[in-house]
Amino acid sequence: MKHMKTILAIFIGGLILFPLLYANADNSAKPETMISKKCLKCHQGFKKMNDTLAGNFKSSSNKAKTIQMKINNGMKLVKFTKDTTIKNVPSIKKLKGTIPIRVHYKRVGEDLVATEIVAKPEMKVPKDQLIGTKKLAKLVAMGPEKGDYTLVDSRPGNLYMTAHIPTAISIPFPKMKKLSAKLPKDKNQLLIFYCEGFR
């Protein structure tokens, strides 16, 4: 009888533990987030890229041959080699601050090894193509017809819906080509774009 109780206890214990072990195994199998939500606001195409990380550069170690990057609230460590290519900066040493980067990698055992690191290029707009807030406010007060301008909010549509500059129309940057018909036909009309700025 004691033998039967022992078998029954083990069997019941197995019934309790098995779902827990299965649940843990299922959780570990779930793919982790590898693309920053901020990056996805403008770069929806990143979702379709395999073996890709996107987030903010945090630090690098030439001795350990690693870079650390922040993706949402987590940190990711990626190794690099002499064969790793880098774009938009001269070298990995020149990665500074929290510049956004995209890393294409391959798995070597448990390590992620970068094959290419793409830094977000610095946006430089000629001074004669910039508009000040005072002039913009004056135009907005006049309105598009009287002011003869078109103001374009190139941020993601959800941000436009939350708040935008009066008289602005929404043409998110990734959809610029698709929604180009919303732009003025008169090529001489003043065309003003604004976004979230370089991050």
3D structure, described in words:
The chain is built from five helices and nine strands. The chain is of the alpha/beta class. It has two domains: 83 residues, Copper binding periplasmic protein CusF (OB fold (Dihydrolipoamide Acetyltransferase, E2P), Beta Barrel); 68 residues, no CATH class. The strands form two sheets. Strands 3-2-1-5-6-4 form a six-stranded mixed beta sheet. Strand 2 and strand 3 form a beta hairpin. It is elongated, with a radius of gyration of 26 Å. The N and C termini lie far apart (72 Å). The N terminus is likely disordered.
Low-confidence residue ranges: 1-31
Determine the fraction of residues in helical runs and give it as a percent range: 25-40%
Average pLDDT level: 83
SSE pattern, N- to C-terminal: HHEEEEEEHHEHEE
- Number of E strands: 9
CATH class of the largest domain: Mainly Beta
